[in-house]
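Q: Okay, next protein. This is YchJ-like middle NTF2-like domain-containing protein from Nocardia arthritidis. I've checked the sequence twice, so it should be correct. Can you predict the 3D structure?
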Amino acid sequence: MDMCPCRRGERFDECCGPILAGERDAPTAEALMRSRYTAFAVGDAEYLKRSWHPRTRPRELTLDPGQRWLFLEIVRTERGGPFDDAGTVEFVAHYRSGGGRGELHETSRFVRVDGAWTYLDGAIEA
């Protein structure tokens, strides 16, 4: 894969690839959000489960193979930096499926567990 699906402008193997592979942790909540988007784009359900907070992680996670993730927009971030323990990222993820194009607009909450960022939960925006 050439460019990373998260559209940060870097190659996959220099951007989200090492995070998905477990070679390094996401340094910020936004970086974790971008890596999770990338996991959806490449179909890596195991990484999604690993990066989910243990309290809110689903037992099963099935990705829709007919859904193609097109691009990610970060709308805003609040906290979630290298020295924070919690943060919020609002994003819009654009996709194409059998029903045409769509978007997921969510404000997600992230917290650290044992020093690593995890996805806690999110609220879908109208």
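A: Here is a summary of the prediction. Residues 12-124 form a domain with the Nuclear Transport Factor 2; Chain: A, fold (CATH 3.10.450.50). The mean pLDDT is 96.
Q: Noted. On to the next one.
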